[in-house]
Amino acid sequence: MYRLDKFIIHGVRYLVWPGSSAKVPAAEGVVLLLSGREGVGADRLVVMAPGYPGGVRCFGTDGALCAVEASDRYVAALANGRRDEVLDDTSFEYSEVRLTEAFFHRLMKHGHMAKIAG
Questions:
Q1: Secondary structure class of 63 (helix, strand, coil)
Q2: pLDDT value at residue 117
Q3: What average pLDDT does range 72-97 have in this prediction?
């Protein structure tokens, strides 16, 4: 079972892929994961990526890399428990998402896995 964090801030749904994983699904798997119909339903996938500026990379619902925004770094800080980087006046909703082994393998079989960690 794989655990992901999901945050909703200002109506945008963020799903955080843990930094402990060196690989993320290819674009087709990201699309499946973020899908509200077949996946968990999110607008952005925030991936902990040591070695990249800010330690974060982001993907949109089309599976393509997106420009990293301040809100993406904020969500990454929330997921990592780095409260010193978190603004106290921003309200958010939090939920924990658990992926079954079967769904995780379905995500990873879409194309080749992308190496994300530096």
A1: coil
A2: 45
A3: 76
Residue range 31-45: average pLDDT? 94
Rounded CA-CA distance 86/115 in Å is 28
The CB-based long-range contact list for 33-37 (8 Å cut-off, 24+ gap) reads 33/107, 34/59, 34/60, 34/61, 35/61
Stated pTM of the model: 0.84
Torsion (CA) 13, 116, 110, 100 in degrees, nearest 10: -60
Segment 10-15 shows an average pLDDT of 94
| Residue 74: closest CA among 4, 7, 2 | 7
DSSP letters of 64-105? -EE---HHHHHHHHHHHT-GGGS-TT---EEEEEEE-HHHHH
User: Which residue, among 45, 49, 58, has the nearest Cα to 13 in the 3D structure?
Assistant: 45
Tokens of 66: 């997106």
Residue bearing tokens 């599976």: 63
Residue type at 51 in one-letter notation: G
